[in-house]
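Hey, I'm writing a tutorial for new members on how sequence and structure tokens pair up, and I'd like a real worked example in the thread rather than a made-up one. If someone can provide the structure for the chain below, I'll link this post from the tutorial.
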Amino acid sequence: MNIEPRIAAIHQDMIRWRRDIHAHPELGFEEERTAAIVAEKLREFGCEVTTGIAKTGVVGTIRVGNSPASVGLRADMDCLPMQETNTFAHASKHPGRMHACGHDGHTTMLLGAAKYLAETRNFQGTVHLIFQPAEEGGGGGRVMVEEGLFQKFPCDAIFAMHNRPSLPVGQFAIRPGPMLAGGCRFEIRIKGKGAHGARPETGIDPVLVAAHIVGAAQTIVSRTTSPHEPVVVSFTQIHAGDAYNVIPERAVLRGTIRCYSNAVREQVTTALARVAREVAAAFGAEAEPDIRPGYPPLVNDAKEAAFMADVAVSLVGEENVQRNGPRVMGSEDFSYMLEAVPGAFILSGQGGGHSGTLGGCELHNPGYDFNDDLLPLGATLFARVVEAKLAPKSA
């Protein structure tokens, strides 16, 4: 791996930064300590620093020369509301909060790149180092855009990366166009008529109605959308009743929709609402769907995806970069930034877990830990993206 020597030299520093952040996880829009650490280090490196964007977001800026060209690099800072099961020294010190998605590593890689770029200044133009709050469901990326991120910090292009368990360290995956799914969360409230469990004919069973809605909704995927458009409709909760011998008055279904285009998302949400209401009506019950759009699909600009892949190839070789990697049904709110500015999102191999061996746990697992071996490679990729995108023009 072609890791920048100056970044390799601060690997142990980055490990300390990362493990400190891991031990003190903070939820979305509550990243006060993390944001303060980020801002302090950026100032120490010599960056211009702006705080308080989307409450806890931080932007560091480095300007070199008079070129109007600019590029943005983004990392996320928040943790998940879950209990960590790891017992190593840097495990979470806050019960019910955990860095189970690697945002501690993403933040650290961008800090490593910031230190290198501020010291070497081997580019012409402006780089904005964007540390985003609340990626895990809070939509911090959307809030930053709505608060004028790209008006205050114009970017010709923007780039981000995410660790990928099961992909070996030293490998990358990217693709042009849709890469991560957009999503919705839904709740369907069903009103029937309560009755004694021994006399179902006197009531309208909302549990039975719920079961039929779950089954009928799967025909949205199989018979309403194109087989060329991947769609997931998952019911993840059914709540009804309190007694074994009582048919309840009400039932509630909850779940998620995932797909790769806003048009398909609209088609599926409209169909789900129709199916819920009409299936319920067929039983004499009522259904009230509440479908809330989540993050839009993450769509890489084709030109910028090819550019980022080229930079990755310069570090690890063509054989270790998937230029047309697999799409992922997970969602990412970097999608809001990509709707506003062309750019690309890449997956970087994390190996299997803390030890770096393959076969470790996936993201959002209580035993997850970011692989520190990835830190200098990720920081180098960020740095090389800036140096390639803002390379001085020949006279």
